[in-house]
Protein backbone atom coordinates (compact mmCIF):
# COMPACT_ATOMS: atom_id res chain seq x y z
CA UNK A 1 0.00 0.00 0.00
CA UNK A 2 1.26 3.47 -0.98
CA UNK A 3 2.35 5.86 1.73
CA UNK A 4 -0.31 8.64 1.67
CA UNK A 5 2.35 11.23 2.52
CA UNK A 6 5.19 10.52 0.11
CA UNK A 7 3.67 7.87 -2.18
CA UNK A 8 6.39 5.40 -1.34
CA UNK A 9 5.09 2.07 -2.72
CA UNK A 10 5.68 0.05 0.42
CA UNK A 11 4.80 0.21 4.12
CA UNK A 12 5.35 -1.85 7.25
CA UNK A 13 2.58 -2.99 9.61
CA UNK A 14 3.41 -1.95 13.18
CA UNK A 15 0.13 -2.90 14.87
CA UNK A 16 -3.08 -4.78 13.97
CA UNK A 17 -6.26 -5.00 15.88
CA UNK A 18 -9.70 -6.41 15.19
CA UNK A 19 -12.69 -4.18 15.85
CA UNK A 20 -14.98 -5.09 18.74
CA UNK A 21 -17.67 -6.53 16.52
CA UNK A 22 -15.11 -8.47 14.50
CA UNK A 23 -16.14 -6.86 11.21
CA UNK A 24 -12.90 -5.05 10.46
CA UNK A 25 -9.19 -4.95 11.13
CA UNK A 26 -7.33 -1.74 11.79
CA UNK A 27 -3.64 -1.64 10.97
CA UNK A 28 -1.08 0.97 11.93
CA UNK A 29 1.55 1.20 9.25
CA UNK A 30 4.82 2.99 8.96
CA UNK A 31 6.45 4.23 5.78
CA UNK A 32 10.10 3.11 5.55
CA UNK A 33 10.88 6.14 3.42
CA UNK A 34 9.44 9.15 5.30
CA UNK A 35 8.86 7.22 8.58
CA UNK A 36 5.40 8.67 9.02
CA UNK A 37 2.59 6.49 10.31
CA UNK A 38 -0.89 5.98 8.94
CA UNK A 39 -3.87 3.69 9.53
CA UNK A 40 -5.64 1.35 7.17
CA UNK A 41 -8.91 -0.46 7.70
CA UNK A 42 -9.63 -3.85 6.27
CA UNK A 43 -13.27 -4.78 5.75
CA UNK A 44 -14.95 -7.59 3.94
CA UNK A 45 -16.13 -6.37 0.58
CA UNK A 46 -19.62 -4.84 0.62
CA UNK A 47 -21.24 -4.69 -2.79
CA UNK A 48 -24.14 -2.42 -3.66
CA UNK A 49 -26.43 -3.84 -6.33
CA UNK A 50 -27.96 -1.15 -8.47
CA UNK A 51 -31.36 -1.45 -10.11
CA UNK A 52 -29.65 -2.15 -13.41
CA UNK A 53 -28.09 -5.23 -11.80
CA UNK A 54 -24.61 -3.70 -11.85
CA UNK A 55 -22.75 -4.07 -8.57
CA UNK A 56 -20.19 -1.69 -7.18
CA UNK A 57 -18.24 -1.41 -3.95
CA UNK A 58 -20.06 0.46 -1.17
CA UNK A 59 -18.78 4.01 -0.91
CA UNK A 60 -19.37 6.56 1.82
CA UNK A 61 -18.69 9.22 -0.75
CA UNK A 62 -21.69 8.06 -2.78
CA UNK A 63 -23.86 8.21 0.33
CA UNK A 64 -22.67 11.76 0.93
CA UNK A 65 -23.27 12.92 -2.62
CA UNK A 66 -26.74 11.35 -2.53
CA UNK A 67 -27.64 13.20 0.65
CA UNK A 68 -25.92 16.48 -0.15
CA UNK A 69 -28.59 17.56 -2.63
CA UNK A 70 -31.30 17.05 -0.03
CA UNK A 71 -29.27 19.19 2.40
CA UNK A 72 -28.91 22.21 0.13
CA UNK A 73 -29.55 25.41 2.03
CA UNK A 74 -29.79 23.51 5.32
CA UNK A 75 -27.45 23.98 8.31
CA UNK A 76 -25.66 20.72 7.61
CA UNK A 77 -21.87 20.77 7.34
CA UNK A 78 -19.38 18.43 5.72
CA UNK A 79 -18.63 16.93 9.15
CA UNK A 80 -22.29 16.09 9.62
CA UNK A 81 -22.40 14.41 6.23
CA UNK A 82 -19.25 12.42 6.97
CA UNK A 83 -20.67 11.24 10.30
CA UNK A 84 -23.96 10.33 8.68
CA UNK A 85 -22.19 8.27 6.00
CA UNK A 86 -20.17 6.53 8.70
CA UNK A 87 -23.33 5.63 10.62
CA UNK A 88 -24.95 4.32 7.46
CA UNK A 89 -21.92 2.15 6.72
CA UNK A 90 -21.74 0.82 10.28
CA UNK A 91 -25.44 0.07 10.27
CA UNK A 92 -25.20 -1.88 7.02
CA UNK A 93 -22.00 -3.71 7.96
CA UNK A 94 -23.44 -4.73 11.31
CA UNK A 95 -25.89 -6.88 9.40
CA UNK A 96 -22.97 -9.02 8.31
CA UNK A 97 -23.98 -9.14 4.67
CA UNK A 98 -21.77 -9.13 1.58
CA UNK A 99 -24.17 -7.32 -0.73
CA UNK A 100 -27.11 -4.96 -0.48
CA UNK A 101 -29.59 -3.40 -2.89
CA UNK A 102 -29.06 0.28 -3.65
CA UNK A 103 -32.63 0.96 -2.48
CA UNK A 104 -31.83 -0.50 0.92
CA UNK A 105 -28.86 1.81 1.22
CA UNK A 106 -31.30 4.66 0.62
CA UNK A 107 -33.55 3.34 3.37
CA UNK A 108 -30.60 2.98 5.76
CA UNK A 109 -29.91 6.69 5.25
CA UNK A 110 -33.39 7.78 6.35
CA UNK A 111 -33.07 7.32 10.09
CA UNK A 112 -29.75 9.11 10.65
CA UNK A 113 -30.85 11.84 8.24
CA UNK A 114 -34.08 12.35 10.18
CA UNK A 115 -32.02 12.93 13.30
CA UNK A 116 -29.72 15.31 11.46
CA UNK A 117 -32.19 17.57 9.65
CA UNK A 118 -35.92 17.09 9.25
CA UNK A 119 -36.31 19.16 6.10
CA UNK A 120 -33.48 17.30 4.36
CA UNK A 121 -35.08 14.08 5.57
CA UNK A 122 -38.42 14.98 3.97
CA UNK A 123 -36.74 15.84 0.69
CA UNK A 124 -34.76 12.63 0.67
CA UNK A 125 -37.66 10.45 1.82
CA UNK A 126 -39.91 11.91 -0.86
CA UNK A 127 -37.57 10.43 -3.44
CA UNK A 128 -36.62 7.16 -1.74
CA UNK A 129 -40.03 6.28 -0.43
CA UNK A 130 -41.71 7.51 -3.59
CA UNK A 131 -43.99 10.18 -2.12
CA UNK A 132 -46.70 10.75 -4.70
CA UNK A 133 -49.09 13.17 -3.06
CA UNK A 134 -49.47 15.82 -0.42
CA UNK A 135 -50.95 13.12 1.80
CA UNK A 136 -47.63 11.28 1.76
CA UNK A 137 -45.86 14.44 2.95
CA UNK A 138 -48.55 15.04 5.55
CA UNK A 139 -48.18 11.54 6.92
CA UNK A 140 -44.39 11.89 7.13
CA UNK A 141 -44.67 15.30 8.79
CA UNK A 142 -47.27 14.00 11.25
CA UNK A 143 -44.93 11.22 12.28
CA UNK A 144 -42.04 13.70 12.70
CA UNK A 145 -44.31 15.84 14.88
CA UNK A 146 -45.42 12.90 16.97
CA UNK A 147 -41.80 11.99 17.51
CA UNK A 148 -40.81 15.52 18.43
CA UNK A 149 -43.68 15.87 20.86
CA UNK A 150 -42.73 12.58 22.49
CA UNK A 151 -39.20 13.82 23.19
CA UNK A 152 -38.48 15.64 26.42
CA UNK A 153 -38.13 19.40 25.92
CA UNK A 154 -34.58 20.61 25.51
CA UNK A 155 -33.37 17.52 23.68
CA UNK A 156 -34.21 19.29 20.42
CA UNK A 157 -32.06 20.27 17.45
CA UNK A 158 -28.58 21.71 17.46
CA UNK A 159 -25.66 19.37 17.28
CA UNK A 160 -26.53 15.83 16.34
CA UNK A 161 -26.01 13.48 19.26
CA UNK A 162 -22.89 11.45 18.60
CA UNK A 163 -23.60 8.67 21.03
CA UNK A 164 -27.02 7.49 20.03
CA UNK A 165 -27.49 3.89 21.11
CA UNK A 166 -27.93 1.63 18.12
CA UNK A 167 -31.46 0.39 17.80
CA UNK A 168 -32.06 -2.96 16.26
CA UNK A 169 -34.76 -2.74 13.70
ZN1 LIG B 1 6.17 8.02 3.20
From TrEMBL:
The ATP-cone domain sits at 46-136
- Describe cofactor binding as the record notes it: Binds 1 zinc ion.
Pfam families annotated for this entry? ATP-cone (PF03477), Zn_ribbon_NrdR (PF22811)
Q: Where is the composition biased (Low complexity)?
A: 152-161
* ZnF (unnamed) residues: 3-34
Annotated region Disordered: the residues are 148-169
Q: Which UniProt keywords apply?
A: ATP-binding, DNA-binding, Metal-binding, Nucleotide-binding, Repressor, Transcription, Transcription regulation, Zinc, Zinc-finger
Q: Which cofactor does it need?
A: Zn(2+)
Q: What does this protein do?
A: Negatively regulates transcription of bacterial ribonucleotide reductase nrd genes and operons by binding to NrdR-boxes.
**Membership in a protein family:** Belongs to the NrdR family.
Entry-linked HAMAP family: NrdR
User: What name has this protein been given in UniProt?
Assistant: Transcriptional repressor NrdR
